[in-house]
Design brief:
heterodimer, A: mainly alpha, MetI-like fold, 2 domains, about 65% helix, about 0% strand, globular, B: mainly alpha
C-alpha cells in the first residue's frame, strides 16, 4: 500500500517537472514573437521606446492598427508619422511579389521535380543509375556555392530585376527530386501495368494514378520549398534593384535600414510577414511535422 | 521481359526527365562548373575590358586575405559553440515533448514557431531586444539583482557574435527537435521494457538505449547544423554587417562583398571553390560515419 502511494507520488512529481519544463521552454520560444505583435499594436512610438525593456512592453496602453493602416482620423493623414506600413510604402506590391514568386516556384517545382523522379523511379533505361547518383551528389552543393557564377550568368542573360530570375533557377531541386524518388520507387509494378493494359498513356498514369497517391510527399515538399523561398534573402538582395520586383525580406531589410527607426511600423511589417505563415503552420501542422521528418531521412 | 524500350516509351521517358534535367544543368551544374573556370580569371560583373586568364592569382591572393580567414575563423567558432548547445537543447526538448503528457502537442507547436519565422524578421525583432534599454539588458539586470552593466550588444565587439549565436539557437532548435523526435519514436519500446525488468534506472536507459539508438539521427543533426553554420549570412547582414571590428564577419559575407558589392566575380569564384571544398569535406565525414554504422 505504502509503496503504491509513493509510486503515485513519484508519477505526480514527474508530471509537475514535465509541465514546468514545457512551460519554461514555451516562454523562451514565444516571448520574442509575442513581443513583436504587441509592439506592432502600440500606436504610440514614444510609449514603445519608453517601456521597451520592461514587462509592460507586452501590454500596450492603447491597442490600434495605426502602425498597419495608419490613422485616418489624424489632422493630416498623409504625414509619415500618421501613416501605417501599408500607406507609407509600397507594401502591397512587396507582398504580391513574394506571394507570386513563391507560388510560381513551388507549383512549377512540384510538377518538374515529381516528373523527373517519376521518370527515374518507374522506367528502366540505360544511364538511369548514373542519373540517380548524380542527383544525390548534387544535394551536397549549397546555394552559396553557385550564387556568384549564377549571378554572372543571369546578368549575361539580361535577367536582373525580374520575376523569372527569382523563379526559374529555383524550380528544380535535387533534394526534392530525391524525396519524390524515394516515394515513387515503393509503388508496386502492378500499379502501372494494369493501367497500361487499359491503354492509358504514361502521362495519364503519372497524373491520374501516381500523383493522387502521393499527397503526403507532395505536401511535405511544398512546405519545405515554400519555407525556403519565402525567407530567401541573399539572392533577391543581389538581383533586385528597384521596388518593382522586390520581395518582402529585401523590403524589410531596406525599411529597417532607414533612420530614425519607427519600431511600431517595423514590427507591423514583421508581423504581416509572419502571421500568415504562422496561421498556415498551425492549420497544416501535421504536414509541417512530416516534412521536417522527411528532411532528416538521408 | 527485357528492358528494351519501345519508341513510344523512350519518348515518355524523355518527357518526364528532360524539363528537370535541363533546369538542373542550366542553373546548378553549369554555374557550379563555371565557378572553377571563373576562379582562374579576372572576370568582373560589369566590365568593358576583356577577361583574362590569370592562373592561380586569385587563390594566392585568397590565402593572403586576412578578412577571408577572419570570416572562416568566425564560422568555425560559431559552429563550435552553436552546434553542441543547439543539439543538446533540441534533444532535451524532443525528450520532454515525447513524454505522454496531455496537451504536449501545443507545446511542440510553440517550439517550432521560430523556425517557421523568416530569419530576416527574427533578426529585426532580436535587434530591438538587444537594444541598450531593451528587454535582454533589463532581464539580465533582474536576474543579477542589478549587478549587470548595460551593454549595447550588437555594437560591442565582444558581445555581438554571442548575441547572434543565442538568437540562431533560438531560431533553429525547433527544427532539430522534430528530427530528434522522429528518431525517438522509432526506438522499439521493447528495449525499454526489457531494461526496466533488469532494474535499469532512467540514466542507464538514456545512456545505453536512447543515445546509441539515436546515433544516425545525431550524426545527421550535427553535420547539417555545422554546414548551416558555414552558410551564415542573413542575420549577420541585417544585424551587424560583419562589424564591429569584423567580429561577426563570415565567409559568405566576404563572398557577397567581393562578388556583388565589389563585382569581382573571378575572386569571389575562388572563395566559392574553397567554400565548397570545405562543405564537401564535412559531407564526406558524415557519409563515412553513417556507413560505419550500417556495417556494424
Amino acid at each position: 500500500m505504502a509503496q503504491q502511494r509513493s509510486l503515485k507520488r513519484v508519477k505526480i512529481f514527474d508530471k509537475v517537472i514535465g509541465y514546468f519544463l514545457l512551460t519554461l521552454l514555451a516562454l523562451f520560444f514565444l516571448f520574442p514573437l509575442v513581443y513583436m505583435v504587441s509592439t506592432s499594436l502600440n500606436p504610440d512610438e514614444r510609449d514603445i521606446v519608453n517601456k521597451m525593456g520592461s514587462v509592460m512592453a507586452f501590454v500596450p496602453k492603447n491597442i490600434s492598427l495605426k502602425n498597419y493602416i495608419g490613422d485616418p482620423d489624424a489632422e493630416d493623414p498623409t504625414k509619415t508619422e500618421n501613416q501605417g506600413v501599408i500607406g507609407r510604402m509600397n507594401f502591397g506590391r512587396f507582398m504580391f511579389n513574394s506571394v507570386f514568386i513563391v507560388s510560381c516556384t513551388v507549383l512549377a517545382g512540384l510538377l518538374v521535380n515529381s516528373m523527373l523522379a517519376f521518370g527515374l523511379a518507374r522506367f528502366s533505361f540505360k544511364g538511369r543509375e548514373v542519373l540517380v547518383s548524380g542527383i544525390v551528389a548534387l544535394m551536397i552543393i549549397p546555394f552559396e556555392a553557385i550564387a556568384i557564377p549564377l549571378l554572372w550568368l543571369v546578368n549575361n542573360l539580361g535577367w536582373l530585376d525580374s520575376y523569372q530570375v527569382q523563379i526559374i533557377p529555383f524550380i528544380a531541386n535535387p533534394f526534392y527530386i530525391f524525396l519524390f524518388y524515394q516515394f515513387f520507387i515503393q509503388f508496386p509494378k502492378a500499379l502501372e501495368e494494369a493501367a497500361l493494359i487499359d491503354g492509358a498513356s504514361w502521362f495519364k498514369i503519372y497524373w491520374k494514378v501516381a500523383l493522387p497517391l502521393s499527397k503526403p510527399i507532395l505536401s511535405s515538399v511544398a512546405i519545405l520549398h515554400f519555407l525556403m523561398q519565402w525567407g530567401f534573402f541573399l539572392w533577391p538582395l543581389m538581383v533586385t534593384r528597384g521596388e518593382e520586383y522586390r520581395p518582402l525580406p529585401v523590403a524589410m531589410q531596406q525599411f529597417f535600414g532607414q533612420y530614425p527607426r519607427d519600431w511600431g511600423d517595423i514590427m507591423a511589417f514583421a508581423s504581416m510577414m509572419t502571421i500568415p505563415v504562422l496561421v498556415l503552420f498551425v492549420i497544416l501542422q501535421r504536414h509541417f511535422v512530416n516534412s521536417v521528418k522527411s528532411s532528416g531521412i538521408k | 521481359m527485357a528492358y528494351a524500350l519501345s519508341k513510344k516509351k523512350k519518348r515518355a521517358v524523355l518527357l518526364f526527365i528532360l524539363p528537370g534535367l535541363c533546369l538542373l544543368s542550366m542553373f546548378m551544374i553549369l554555374p557550379f562548373l563555371m565557378s572553377f573556370g571563373l576562379s582562374f580569371t579576372n572576370q568582373r560583373l560589369l566590365s568593358r575590358y576583356a577577361t583574362e586568364f590569370i592562373g592561380w592569382s586569385n587563390y594566392e591572393r585568397l590565402f593572403r586575405d586576412d578578412l577571408f580567414f577572419t570570416g572562416l575563423k568566425n564560422n568555425f567558432v560559431f559552429a563550435l559553440i552553436v552546434v553542441p548547445i543547439q543539439t543538446v537543447l533540441a534533444l532535451g526538448m524532443a525528450m520532454v515533448v515525447n513524454k505522454h503528457l496531455k496537451g504536449v502537442k501545443i507545446f511542440r507547436t510553440a517550439y517550432f514557431m521560430p523556425t517557421v519565422t523568416t530569419m530576416v524578421v527574427v533578426s529585426v525583432v532580436w535587434t530591438f531586444m538587444y537594444n541598450p534599454q531593451g528587454l535582454i539588458n533589463n532581464f539580465m539586470q533582474a536576474i543579477t539583482f542589478g549587478n549587470w552593466e548595460t551593454v549595447d550588444f550588437l555594437k560591442n565587439s565582444q558581445w555581438a557574435f554571442p548575441a547572434i549565436m543565442l538568437m540562431s539557437i533560438w531560431q533553429g532548435a525547433g527544427f532539430q527537435m522534430l528530427i530528434f523526435l522522429a528518431g525517438l519514436q522509432e526506438i522499439p519500446e521493447i528495449l525499454y521494457e526489457a531494461a526496466t525488468i533488469d532494474g535499469a534506472n532512467k540514466w542507464r536507459k538514456f545512456w545505453n538505449i536512447t543515445l546509441p539508438q539515436l546515433r544516425n539521427t545525431t550524426t545527421f543533426v550535427l553535420i547539417s547544423t555545422t554546414i548551416l553554420a558555414l552558410r551564415l549570412f542573413d542575420q549577420i547582414k541585417i544585424m551587424t554587417n560583419g562589424g564591429p571590428n569584423d567580429s561577426t564577419y563570415t565567409v559568405i559575407l566576404h563572398l557577397y562583398n567581393s562578388g556583388f558589392s565589389k563585382q569581382r566575380v573571378g575572386y569571389a569564384s575562388a572563395i566559392t571553390v574553397v567554400f565548397f571544398l570545405i562543405v564537401l569535406a564535412i559531407s564526406i565525414v558524415q557519409r563515412l560515419i553513417l556507413r560505419e554504422e550500417r556495417e556494424v
